């Protein structure tokens, strides 16, 4: 079995682990372990909130969550020989719930508008929670009736450390956005926050300096990070740009399943678990493969694994706000409309608003861009697999062209053998 390079005790928060991980991005966070290119290894992870969410029937923990220690990440892993300009090739070999749990579980939260929010937080401002039983391939929830689906397990968050220059660039552009509306709730972006920062084994004045600069882990950025790609499952390969010596690969925020958009914010089925990875290096790969633009990103090869759901009901949205305000080619407004249309539809089958919202965030929903050129309306569609429901969620009020009293014609008695049949 692959060597475990990062071990987790599920009963302890990240800061109390034998080798602690981190919850900010900074080039000076010391490596927790090192490995050579060409090796496979295991990494264990806590859930992204550092054990704050309980397997119970109250959403108080979601409402009162402290987001300052999030996301807790395992790593960094130093890959020997990696230098800025290289590509770190990462294969996802396996991923699962913690081996020590007899009854693995995960959770989904709708964050309160006052504490985190989510894509539809203006419509659904209160905190809610769903607990999921993770049994073999399947997820089902005692809080959401008649739904069961195959999870496409993936790391929500995986990336290499930024260089000092790249980090400074992030902080500058995100602060400029915050400055356009500094009092907004929820905020436009999250600036560096020393409170509850965990930077591996860094301490003292080194820690103080780095904690004041280190980037929050919430957004995806040029190094990867919180990419939340729902199909990034076992069998996928990632090509990460390397910005610092050793690459310093970190990851966490394991998801059992997620719908495109992860719309409730704590929106996937969040879990602790393990992931097996293999790493290789392409020297000078950034230049070789066109990662030369200022806003280049990692490149992915997606896995061949996917649940065999072939029937969908599809909802569309266009870039117009609820009050009729016309937006110009806004995919965000369009995605919002598609989600709200899907929720309204699911409500006619007995789901509550929040149950429907959580289904869209967790089940393998496909979000697709239909058009971004037909001024003024961007158009998106979301594909909801009908086979994840144990009830029929298609419209049944369609007049049938088939007859329920239909019978086969039958000729009783012996065949008339005297009759000659000419073909
Ligand atoms: Zn997550």
UniProtKB/TrEMBL annotation:
Note one Pfam family from the annotation. Answer: FmdA_AmdA
Enzyme kind, highest EC tier: hydrolase
Protein EC: 3.5.1.49
Q: Which UniProt keywords apply?
A: Hydrolase
Q: Give the originating organism.
A: uncultured Rubrobacteraceae bacterium
Q: What is the protein name stated in its UniProt record?
A: Formamidase
Concerning NCBIfam families, the annotation shows:
FormamaseFmdA
Tell me if Hydrolase is a UniProt keyword of this record.
yes
Classification lineage: Bacteria, Bacillati, Actinomycetota, Rubrobacteria, Rubrobacterales
Transmembrane annotation, as ranges: none
Residue span of region Disordered: 400-423
A GO MF annotation of the entry reads: formamidase activity
Q: Which SUPFAM superfamilies match?
A: Acetamidase/Formamidase-like (SSF141130)
Instruction: List, alphabetically, the Gene3D superfamilies matched.
Output: Acetamidase/Formamidase-like domains
């Amino acid at each position: 079995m692959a060597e475990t390079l990062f071990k987790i005790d599920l009963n302890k928060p990240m800061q109390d682990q034998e080798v602690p991980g981190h919850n900010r991005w900074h080039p000076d966070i010391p490596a927790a372990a090192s490995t050579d290119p060409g090796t496979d290894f295991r990494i264990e992870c806590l859930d992204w909130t550092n054990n704050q969410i309980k397997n119970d029937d109250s959403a108080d923990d979601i409402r009162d969550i402290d987001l300052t220690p999030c996301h807790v990440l395992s790593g960094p892993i130093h890959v020997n020989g990696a230098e800025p300009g290289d590509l770190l090739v990462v294969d996802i070999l396996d991923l699962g719930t913690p081996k020590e749990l007899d009854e693995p579980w995960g959770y989904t939260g709708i964050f309160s508008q006052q504490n985190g929010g989510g894509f539809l937080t203006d419509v659904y401002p209160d905190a809610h929670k769903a607990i999921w039983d993770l049994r073999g391939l399947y997820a089902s929830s005692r809080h959401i009736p008649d739904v069961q689906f195959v999870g496409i397990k993936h790391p929500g968050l995986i990336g290499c450390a930024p260089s000092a220059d790249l980090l400074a660039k992030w902080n500058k552009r995100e602060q400029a956005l915050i400055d356009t509306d500094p009092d907004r709730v929820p905020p436009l972006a999250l600036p560096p926050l020393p409170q509850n920062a965990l930077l591996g084994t860094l301490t003292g004045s080194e820690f103080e300096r780095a904690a004041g600069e280190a980037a929050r882990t919430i957004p995806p950025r040029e190094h990867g990070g919180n990419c939340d790609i729902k199909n990034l499952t076992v069998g996928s390969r990632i090509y990460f740009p390397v910005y610092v010596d050793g690459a310093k690969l970190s990851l966490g925020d394991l998801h059992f399943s997620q719908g495109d958009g992860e719309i409730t914010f704590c929106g996937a089925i969040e879990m602790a678990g393990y992931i097996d990875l293999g790493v290789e290096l392409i020297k000078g790969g950034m230049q070789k493969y066109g990662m030369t633009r200022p806003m280049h990103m990692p490149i992915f090869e997606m896995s061949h694994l996917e649940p065999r759901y072939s029937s969908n009901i599809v909802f569309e949205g266009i870039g117009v706000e609820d009050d009729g305000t016309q937006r110009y080619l806004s995919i965000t407004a369009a995605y919002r409309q598609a989600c709200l249309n899907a929720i309204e539809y699911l409500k006619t089958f007995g789901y509550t608003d929040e149950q429907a919202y959580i289904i869209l965030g967790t089940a393998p929903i496909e979000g697709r861009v239909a058009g971004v050129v037909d001024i003024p309306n961007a158009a998106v569609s979301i594909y909801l697999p009908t086979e994840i429901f144990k009830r029929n969620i298609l419209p049944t009020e369609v007049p049938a062209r088939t007859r329920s009293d239909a019978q086969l014609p039958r000729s009783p008695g012996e065949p008339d053998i005297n009759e000659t049949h000419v073909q």
